[in-house]
Design a protein that fits this description.
Number of helices: 14
Radius of gyration: 24 Å
Helix content: 25-40%
Bound molecules: iron/sulfur cluster
CATH superfamily of the largest domain: Hypothetical protein, domain 2
Number of strands: 7
Length: 356
């Protein structure tokens, strides 16, 4: 069996030019890219599929076409526009970073990886992506897709998490002087469309002749995996309080956490064990009676699994400051997915048990 050749940037670029997906944040081939648009798309694409991002990205740009416009927005407006994309910390950081760019950088994006990393919410991956795509820096952004491609091509024997520096250095070495942005994007696209986690499409891969895992028939062995830690579980009891019109009481979450600033049902604080009756009583809004809704709603975040029981009650009172009556529709995209899930579950309860 002959040794593989070196992965060729030109071959990858030719493949990408022909097959790349038309996405609104991609400009004409080799053209200059607006760092604001690159940054926005990269933040939205963290943890969210491209198909979900496309309409939200376009609506966001219609509303805030420049970094100055975004910096002037109210944080609550930005959070509301973000609803449905999840991971709201991204939206808060986006807004803060826009203000930093306007105040500390006179409205111009910094262009180096190090400077970009100083912005709120911009980590090593996003900084490298903006530097390569918008400023033509010879670097690559190593996400899961790129790590998988490089781990297979070079048969890297360590898990991606422990070899991120090496992967970054290998990728940057491969990046060409011309079109480094297209190259960085091509690597991501190759991982997403061809070098897939389970069945890689080696038969159509532009780097097949350079791929050690393919040559040795061990594509399933790379990237080397680590045993994954199971996400921690957190418990809460949420209160579905309705008025005579069937509207549901929601409040803005003021506590720090994944839903800070978002509309949620009143609830006990998150705890590592099921809340005690005393904790439930301390958190429940005033109502003549509460009924337990059967079942538990489970919602997964990156490092947490949230398990929520629901209590249902009715009231005639007015909302307090920070609270609203909401129609209770679980298809309201302005609400976080977690709140929509609770509304859907609570609206169609199995026979409920009286709490008291
Ligand atoms: S040849 Fe197969 S395993 Fe190697 S990079 Fe291409 S798709 Fe991935």
């Amino acid at each position: 069996m002959s040794a593989p050749s070196t992965p060729c940037a030109d071959r990858l670029l030719a493949w990408f030019k022909r097959y790349r997906r038309a996405l609104p944040w991609r400009g004409p081939w080799g053209g200059k890219r607006d760092p604001y648009r690159v940054w926005l798309s990269e933040i939205m694409l963290q943890q969210t599929q491209a198909a979900t991002v496309v309409p939200r990205y376009e609506a966001f740009l219609d509303r805030w076409p420049t970094v100055d416009a975004l910096a002037r927005a109210h944080e609550r407006e930005v959070l509301d526009a973000w609803a449905g994309l999840g991971y709201y910390r991204r939206a808060r950081n986006l807004h803060r970073a826009a203000q930093v760019i306007v105040t500390a950088w006179s409205g111009r994006f910094p262009g180096s990886v190090k400077e970009l990393e100083s912005l709120p919410g911009v980590g090593a991956y996003t900084a490298a992506a903006i530097a390569a795509l918008a400023f033509g820096v010879r670097t690559v952004a190593v996400d899961g897709n790129v790590a998988r491609v490089l781990a297979r091509v070079f048969a890297i024997p360590t898990p991606a998490g422990r070899s991120s520096r090496r992967l970054q250095a290998i990728g940057a070495d491969l990046a060409p002087e011309a079109l480094p942005g297209e190259f960085a994007e091509a690597l991501i696209e190759l991982g997403a469309l061809v070098c897939r986690p389970r069945e890689p499409r080696c038969g159509i891969c532009p780097w097949q002749s350079a791929c050690e895992a393919f040559r040795t028939g061990r594509t399933a062995d790379f990237p080397v995996s680590v045993s994954r830690k199971r996400p921690a579980v957190r418990y809460s009891v949420a209160f579905r309080l309705t008025n005579r019109r069937g509207e549901v009481l929601l409040r803005r979450q003021s506590d720090p956490g994944p839903f800070q600033g978002m509309l949620v049902l009143p609830a006990t604080p998150w705890a590592a064990t099921r809340p005690s009756p005393a904790a439930v009583q301390a958190a429940e809004p005033q109502a003549p009676a509460w009924h337990r809704v059967a079942g538990v709603v489970e919602h997964g975040l990156t490092h947490l699994t949230l398990r929520t029981e629901i209590r249902a009650g009715a009231t005639t009172r007015d909302p307090a400051p920070g609270e609203i009556w909401h129609p209770g529709r679980d298809d309201d995209q302005r609400l976080p997915a977690y709140t929509r899930k609770l509304l859907a579950h609570g609206a169609d309860p199995e026979p409920a048990a009286a709490v008291r």
